[in-house]
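PROTOCOL LOG
Step 1. Enter all chains and additional molecules of the complex.
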Amino acid sequence: MHFDSRKLRWLGWWAAALIAITAFGRTVPRAFAAERDLSELSLQELMDVEVISVLRKPERRGQSAAAVYVLTADDMRRAGVLTIPDALRLVPGVEVAKIDANKWAVGIRGFANRLSRSVLVLIDGRSVYSPLFAGTYWEVQDTLLEDVERIEVVRGPGGSVWGANAVNGVINIITKSAEHTHGLYAMGGGGNEDRGFGGIRYGGHIGEDFHWRVYAKYFDRDAGFNAAGPPSYDGWQMSREGLRIDWNLTPRDRLTILGDVYDGDAGQQTPIAIDDPPGQRTVYRRNDLSGGSVLARLSHVFSPTSEASLQFYYDNTFRSEANFRERRNTYDVELQHRAQLPWRQELGWGLQYRGSAGKAPPVVESVAFVPHSERDDLVTGFVQNDIALLSDVLRLTIGVKLEHNDYSGVEWQPSGRLMWTPHPHHAVWAAVSRAVRTPTRTDQDLRFDVFVPPAGGLIRVQGDRDVGPEHVMAYELGYRVQPHERLFLDVAAFYNVYDDLVVIEPGEPESDPGVPGSPLTTLIQRNGLHGHGYGLEIAADAALTQHWSVHAAYTAIRLRLASDPGLIGPDQDAPEDQSPRHQVALRSALRLPAGFELDGVLRFVDDIDVPGVSSYVAVDARLAWSFTTHLEISLVGRDLAESHHREFSGGTEVQRSVFAQVRTWW
Amino acid sequence: MVVTSTQTRTRRAWLAGALIVCLGLVRPDAHPFAQTQASEYELKAAFLYNFAKFVDWPPEADATGPVCFGVLGTDPFGATLDRLITGKMVHERPIVVRHFPTPDTVQTCHLVYVSATAARGFPADAYARTGVLSVGEDDAFLAAGGVIAFGMERNKLRFTVNPAAAERAQLKLSSQLLKLALRVLREGQ
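Step 2. Run joint prediction.
Step 3. Record the structure below.
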């Protein structure tokens, strides 16, 4: 009885599979008629042909005198990623290490850390850099990935027009215009680590000029592997809703409005120094994370050669951790103007003001910002001129950014770039730029006690009002070539000179007035780390056949930094040892007959000098099946090579994960 | 207990089978090319060829020789454009492809494709001319006086038409072309 049933069941599945294959197989020969002549199709028929983006917009990448890499929505879909940091793992020159299930260390050209402090992150023109802690809280940066048009990653400092903190690069997340997201999109799925996730978007238009969309998404993710044993504390869940409106007010004016709100909680392990023995307690708690933003941008075309935009946004964030809580309100207004001038020059300039007020009242005694509430004002201006020297063959771009901040006053950041395109398929560029990371309240106003178990003492990390900006001079060289219709190569090399990076100066141990007998060592933040770094980044895209493309990214980096005498130099937490010397990411995207896609990613990340972290190889795979243009079912496996591995210090380990996903468009 | 659950699973398997069969049968197969794919520039080349079929050139344009397709600036087509139009006719005239890498080499063609790079490096009067159907890559190109701009919608190629620019160039665009356009700009846009 039992045996027969099982047989019957298998027979059922096989019959279903067989019939399905036969049914779908009908269209195979036509779908694979690769050598058909497109010129014989009518315009209407051509409009039904799907574009395979075999080479990632070589034109866009080819024209800038900077190390730019573009990830498209299609790249992200086919890599099977569910978060923005995981998508960034495919980009050359970018380091992404998962700290725990809800935190990433992301860096460009080295210096990956929890908050990516030397990287400017923009989402549709809104900076998400936290002026309190200097950096980006990646766990709250998200949107419906289907609606992301592209993520542009610019390595190096000069690629940005807006100044602050783009020392090592800019990550620019750009969502699709509401004109291109009409209709219903829904997705959902689940697996062992990504336990459940779903998203829905609906877009429409009123008349020809008013386009809108709204979306909502939710996910619930499992905790990472905790080698120290239970508890598994870092699970997280979050929901997010948002909208976008693109409205052509007049033929020359376009209004874009964006908004989003999010709410969630993410588990964290927080050691808190206390006055009573044993000197420290560990709290496992879910951090409360919420926030929202609204942005309005008005673009006006004065003439075919002159256009301007005025943008305003308001951003509110709240986070509550076991030892820290902050609510922050940011207002930003900026004006940009671009105009073509005689002798084929293109002039751009802009002005920006940002006011950001944070309230961080102390939660525990061992962590405090003094004063706990403060407003930061930032005024920035830039001017940049692009000159075509020999028609299209040689272009020179010179620019300067000026900014005034409350901590170090006026900073100026000039850059010069030259691009030579001797042949349509070859381009060589070179750039020199100076960039500044401005001090933040963490450098100047933070007092933070850490308990050191063996000595039984306390270490107090103390900010100092004398901490100034960090500087970098960047020298870059790049070459792009398309040796064959189906092959695109992009090589960039850099040499950076770093000055005045922030390290700590140890003071003499003294007795802690709070705990009689226990020594207290104060470490004061100082600008005292200097040195240089150099590296090479290669990106290659090859369309091997019409249905199969491979993409490779290679990154090599060396940092050599030394601190001034008397300061605590690069130790195991210093940048020098935290950057993998070599990284490789290989991605294959293969279209099979009958609407199947088989994609894979193979990544190698070199060793870093952090206990418990060694080099690793990660394998991701995705099998997807599109029934029709309306429905896609996929099965994705991530980090398949090992059951778990550690990528960064502290936190938990990344586990093998598998999930299934259904996506539908109507 | 075991028996019941096995029976349930068996039933479920058959149900799934039936469902897949149904989906298979109702699979929209309305169009033979609904699922085909092409590389971006292969497809754009085919669009250019089709655009030319929907345009009447003014008498000022060369009406005797072959129809000329010009590519301004960096040529993103490689060999695809030449390969596609070899032996093809438009308005019963053969087509030739010519390349103008720099602004000083530009000559009048019936149709010119202006790559995004060229749109920045070339003055607008290199393509916004009488009798020239100019095709570019974005809305900025239309603002600069271009006639047709490509766009992308869910991985499918679309295009926007600027009738005012077409009128200035004294081109007659067929109503079918305007009907298929994603957007048709209004006067002054």
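Step 4. Note key features.
Residues 58 and 131 of chain B are 6 Å apart (CA to CA).
Chain B touches chain A through 82 residues (CB under 8 Å).
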